[in-house]
């Protein structure tokens, strides 16, 4: 059986790699932090030393003011305390990575967050065989089966076309989701201007600086109200029903999130057009990934651990819950 429990210590605030004296995605400042991606439930400022992909370091500088870090491009490796670390694409957001750890003949993969769907704004998930697989379980219930992304994008385009005198206001998380909605619209052949809330502009610009073409994006603040009729506008979910939205031309409220599968969540946010788009794996994708990775043991964190543990048991696979906290920051 795996010996990873002897050199890896899961804590509520992060995963400690003992031989390396380093933490994966620590929720508090530490001397050595290995960061999987830029969302605030995985990344933060205040660490003495940081290892992350170049894109994640740029995101951390923008969001948290971190001064520097050691860039680790996908596929590159480095050694700390006899542990060989390498970063591999997680398919979650720009720069998101799985961290492969190799120590004394054992391979452990910490995924951070990941998705299996194609995404025009980030690299695709890489399957990495290992002995211990540390997986998220954000949508770890059989009820969660994400629909085809192109179907949800067509709903958005159709609503826009059917309401030429109004605008469609889409709530989308500032890192990852907003850019993906734009990227999916462009991939579908939609090339009209897309207007942005000010809180999304800097991150969209960062994506473009890293080679992600988002097309014609414009600021709401510098655009006359009447020019936004018949167009799509993106804003943080928190702005959907606040005073800011009153300056828009009769907005139809939409939201892009995996949680839009839950009707009560849509009603709570007064969402008229739920768009089920997730940057996390759904139930089928979680279970299929475990099969493909074929670990000797699966460690499950930040999500619905019980159902996935039960599935592993039914399939004669060993699994345990890490019971980490503070992993619900994303408005997926």
UniProtKB/TrEMBL annotation:
Presence of the UniProt keyword Transcription regulation in the record: no
Entry-linked InterPro entries: MBL, Metallo-B-lactamas, RibonucZ/Hydroxyglut_hydro, Xnuc_lig_assoc
The name this protein goes by in its record: Ligase-associated DNA damage response exonuclease
Listed Pfam families: Lactamase_B
Keyword Transferase: no
UniProt GO molecular function: exonuclease activity; ligase activity
Keywords linked to the UniProt accession: Exonuclease, Hydrolase, Ligase, Nuclease
Metallo-beta-lactamase domain mapped to chain residues: 11-173
NCBIfam families: Xnuc_lig_assoc
């Amino acid at each position: 059986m795996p010996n990873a429990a002897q050199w890896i210590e899961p804590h509520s605030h992060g995963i400690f790699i003992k031989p390396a004296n380093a933490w994966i995605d620590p929720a508090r400042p530490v001397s050595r932090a290995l960061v999987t991606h830029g969302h605030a439930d995985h990344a933060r400022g205040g660490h003495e030393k940081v290892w992350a992909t170049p894109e994640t370091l740029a995101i951390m500088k923008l969001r948290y003011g971190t001064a520097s870090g050691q860039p680790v491009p996908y596929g590159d490796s480095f050694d700390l305390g006899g542990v060989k670390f390498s970063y591999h694409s997680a398919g979650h957001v720009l720069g998101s990575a799985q961290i492969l750890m190799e120590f004394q003949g054992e391979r452990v993969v910490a995924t951070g967050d990941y998705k299996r769907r194609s995404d025009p704004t980030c690299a695709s998930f890489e399957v990495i065989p290992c002995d211990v697989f540390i997986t998220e379980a954000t949508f770890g219930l059989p009820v969660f089966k994400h629909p085809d992304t192109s179907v949800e994008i067509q709903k958005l385009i159709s609503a826009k076309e059917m309401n030429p005198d109004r605008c469609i206001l889409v709530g989308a998380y500032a890192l990852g989701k907003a850019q993906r909605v734009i990227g999916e619209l462009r991939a579908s052949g939609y090339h009209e201007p897309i207007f942005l809330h000010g809180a999304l502009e800097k991150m969209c610009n960062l994506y473009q600086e890293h080679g992600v073409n988002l097309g014609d994006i414009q600021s709401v603040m510098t655009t006359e109200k009447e020019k936004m009729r018949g167009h799509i506008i993106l804003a943080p979910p928190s702005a959907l029903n606040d005073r800011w939205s009153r300056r828009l031309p009769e907005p139809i409220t939409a939201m892009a999130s995996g949680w839009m599968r839950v009707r009560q969540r849509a009603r709570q946010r007064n969402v008229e057009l739920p768009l089920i788009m997730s940057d996390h794996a759904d139930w089928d994708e979680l279970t299929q990934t475990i099969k493909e990775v074929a670990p000797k043991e699966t460690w499950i964190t930040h999500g619905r651990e019980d159902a996935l543990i039960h599935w592993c048991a039914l399939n004669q696979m060993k699994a345990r819950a890490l019971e980490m906290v503070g992993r619900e920051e994303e408005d997926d």
